[in-house]
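Workshop exercise sheet. Pairs work together: one partner reads the sequence aloud, the other fills in the structure field after running the prediction. Swap roles for the next sheet.
Pair: D.N. / O.F.
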Amino acid sequence: MTSHISTTTLSGADQSFSGTLTGASTLGNLSFTGSGTKTFANNASTSNFIVSASSTVVTPTALSISGNYHNDGTLTTTGNTTYLTGSNPQSLSGTTTFNNLYLKNNSRTGTTTFNSALTVGDTFTADGSTYIGLLSGATSTIANLTLNGSSTAPISFGSTATGTKSNLIVSGSTVVTYTRVQDSSACGSNGGDY
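Structure field:
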């Protein structure tokens, strides 16, 4: 299936997707509606990824999203990694709960904006030149945080509203290099500031 530009809407009863869903067979915009569980059997790449209120989606081992993400339903990501690979600003809204989340949108052309509190059950990783905006006034919770900036490609990390803090709790390990932080309050699970 090749649907780089179109929108594919998946609705109805339980459905399973398999085959090549990456590379030349990258999916276009994906929209999930209706009841029933939609399950990916193979890794997949897509542009926009939208889950409606009554839908349940089980992600593949690796899901790459190059556009925006919105989830009002249920997303099961246990043991899986979601990659944000856009080359323009990306926006995430609705329920933003992931197992592993890897930001590879390092084009320096825009921010990856979280318009809801973020929850990452395992590891949140970002490459250099990434701009990250967490929802101002909200508390995001991450188990392990790895920000891989460099002197020539630093990461910018902060709030979605200048002058209003976003809150971040990291309960496990942190590896943070060459990261500019603004309007963010971060602490470990024991409440101590970083």
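Discussion prompt: The chain is about 0% helix and 50% strand. What would you look at next?
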